[in-house]
Design brief:
Length: 72
């Protein structure tokens, strides 16, 4: 992997993290998906996989009935 590509990936990941910090999760999800497609083989992408997985729930419907009868 070229050092220039790694640096480009780190910069792109920093931009996604700024979106997350700002609370713009919908844009962060879209940008992270594009990031993983473009930089998926970089070390920066490997470190961002957990965040990518967490962002995948953004925009999905939550269940109307959780099936929980009693909270402890």
């Amino acid at each position: 992997m070229s050092p220039a590509l790694e640096e480009e990936a780190r910069t792109a990941l920093a931009e996604v993290n700024k979106l997350i910090t700002a609370g713009n999760s919908t844009k962060a999800k879209a940008d992270m998906t594009a990031f993983m497609k473009k930089y998926g083989s970089t070390q920066a992408a490997k470190s961002a996989r957990r965040t990518y997985q967490e962002l995948q729930v953004v925009g999905k419907a939550s269940p109307a009935d959780w099936g929980i009868e009693k909270w402890f």
